[in-house]
Design brief:
The protein contains two helices and six strands, in the order E-E-E-E-E-H-E-H. By secondary structure, the chain is α/β, with parallel strands linked by helices. Strand 3 and strand 4 form a beta hairpin. The longest helix is centred in the middle third of the chain and has 15 residues. The termini are far apart. It comes from Alteribacillus bidgolensis.
Length: about 100
């Protein structure tokens, strides 16, 4: 199991915690937590090696488009970049809802 860590400068903290997805064949789980710092830290646990550059590209684009400050934990089981993006968007939507998760 590899652990990848990325950090991005940001300005807008998310409102609430979020948890989406499941760890299973070809899927992933994302947990987001608010932080009071001007950055987003992402920690990825994955069993697929050699995709650090792809992870960075997907995350950079998502963070730049949304400018969110959060701690994001990803538990990956071979998800494609499209699934990663979808789960990130779902987690962001949940974090912006009025109901705390």
């Amino acid at each position: 199991m590899d652990t990848l860590t990325f950090e991005f400068k940001t300005t807008e903290p998310i409102q609430n915690r979020a948890h989406v997805g499941v760890v299973g064949s070809g899927d992933l789980e994302i947990l987001m937590e608010p932080v009071n710092e001007p950055y987003t830290k992402v920690e990825i646990r994955t069993n697929i090696q050699g995709f650090e550059k792809m992870w960075r590209l997907v995350l950079e684009r998502f963070i730049q488009e949304n400018d969110i400050s959060a701690f994001i934990k990803v538990n990956d089981f071979g998800a494609t970049p499209g699934v990663v993006r979808l789960r990130l968007e779902q987690a962001l939507e949940v974090s912006q809802s009025e109901v705390k998760h």
